[in-house]
Design goal:
alpha+beta; Beta-Lactamase; EC 2.7.13.3; Sig_transdc_His_kin-like_C; 4 domains; five-stranded antiparallel beta sheet; transmembrane; transferase
Length: 444
């Protein structure tokens, strides 16, 4: 029997003992009337004193236990009970519970502090709404985006904050929006939340305008650097030859071979002007690529046609399983021609080029494999106008990638793993690309 229950039982027996003794005495001993009343009075006093003593022994430990439980209910986990008392086991369990709750609260506070610091350091604006779409949490970036103090924002609905439209539609999207504190292009993400058995909404707004501007500036810098390089390569000899011809024309008398010098100089100027014109024409072609107009394309027919267009080298076509997809056949053919031309030029005069296709999950993959020296060690292979070939325009790979990405696909140029050479891989979705016209749609 537990110690506390033993103490209660023994105490109860002691409380009843004086009354029992008095009754037994009165029955066995024939006392006179005054003594009988004196015995009864002594029994009553003894019983009252023992009852008070038993009350204190029972109630005070329960007061201690109740105080500990009340402290836990109030969130005060620092109080501890004496484990050696009459409620030793219960006090031990409550002390262990208090230690655990105190440890968990400390971990929660540390996690909350870390979460708060993380949210404060984020450039993304974070909003948390309850099931009534009323704001319950936001970070400093969200406060700056709304250009208001915290106390002015808490409790307002998403509609009052002008954010209701952002909680609707796709879970992730990029759009142009005007906020009180900023406007531009933003990435919007929202997701459902649950807390305390109730629903809510998480909204994250990320400003991508600065990133896009930096990428745009970097693209313009690369473009201007390449354009400046190509234009200077053409203008420098033209300027030099024009100066030479002007000096020659000023001589008196003219040398006997002046006609040949003039003819050679003019041919050089014409050649460089023609090269500059081809370069600008290539740029215009890359910049004016129209949206794809997809229709059913059978890869075996398209690949065989592209292979026959190459006359400098016999291209081997490795037959694959019949595979049809929705794509713009003219653009896809142009992309494959560019990849094939690069492979052939890398392989000439000796070596071979192979074309093959296969289905990889939901993607159609076309590979152009060559026996050349492999891809050059550069990260700019797909940068427009970047080229490692003498006389190259630098738009072949860039145009192929632009066409593939317009079909929601991509292009990669990799080194072969089994032998010397390179593999150009172009992949497209087998399904119809989103945002393009269906084969049956009319195009005006």
């Amino acid at each position: 029997m537990p110690r506390f229950e033993q103490r209660v039982l023994l105490g109860s027996v002691l409380v009843a003992l004086p009354a029992l003794l008095a009754a037994l005495t009165l029955v066995l001993v024939r006392w006179e009337e005054p003594r009988r009343w004196a015995c009864i009075a002594i029994a009553i006093v003894a019983t009252a004193w023992l009852a008070r003593w038993q009350y204190r022994r029972v109630v005070f430990p329960l007061y201690t236990l109740s105080g500990l439980l009340e402290a836990l209910r109030q969130g005060d986990y620092s109080l501890r009970g004496v484990q050696g008392g009459v409620l030793g086991d219960a006090i031990y369990d409550i002390n262990a519970l208090a230690e655990r709750l105190q440890r968990e609260r400390l971990e929660f506070e540390e996690s909350s502090y870390l979460l708060g610091k993380t949210l404060a350091a984020l450039d993304s604006a974070v909003f948390v709404f309850d099931d009534g779409h009323r704001l319950r949490l936001l970070n400093p970036a969200a406060q700056r985006l709304l250009d208001a103090e915290r106390h002015q924002l808490f409790g307002l609905s998403a509609a009052e904050l002008g954010l209701a439209s952002l909680l609707e539609g796709p879970a992730a999207r990029v759009l142009t929006h005007v906020f009180p504190g900023r406007n531009g292009r933003f990435e919007i993400r929202h997701a459902p939340l649950r807390s305390g058995g109730r629903g809510g909404q998480l909204l994250v707004v990320n400003d991508v305008s600065r990133v896009l501007r930096e990428e745009e500036r970097a693209a313009w810098q690369r473009l201007l650097r390449v354009l400046g390089h190509e234009v200077n390569n053409s203008l420098a000899p033209i300027q030099s030859m024009a100066g030479t011809l002007a000096t020659l024309a000023a001589r008196e008398p003219l040398p006997e071979d002046w006609r040949e010098d003039f003819r050679g100089g003019l041919e050089l100027i014409g050649h460089r002007a023609e090269a500059l014109g081809r370069f600008l024409s290539s740029y215009s072609k890359l910049a004016r690529l129209p949206p794809p107009q997809p229709r059913a394309v059978e890869l075996s027919t398209l690949v065989a046609k592209v292979a026959k267009l190459e006359q400098r080298l016999a291209v081997s076509v490795e037959a694959g399983e019949p595979l049809s997809l929705q794509a713009d056949p003219d653009q896809l053919e142009q992309a494959l021609i560019n990849l094939l031309r690069n492979a052939v030029e890398a392989t000439l005069p000796h070596g071979g080029v192979r074309l093959r296709w296969k289905q990889d999950g939901e993607r159609a993959c076309i590979e152009v494999e060559d026996d050349g020296p492999g891809p050059p060690p550069s990260d700019n292979l797909f940068v427009p106008f970047f080229t490692t070939k003498p006389g190259g325009s630098g738009i072949g790979l860039a145009l192929a990638r632009q066409i593939a990405e317009a079909h929601e696909g991509g292009v990669a140029l990799l080194a072969r793993e089994d032998a010397r050479g390179a593999v150009a891989r172009l992949w497209l979705p087998v399904r119809s690309p989103a945002g393009t016209a269906d084969p049956g749609d009319s195009v005006e």
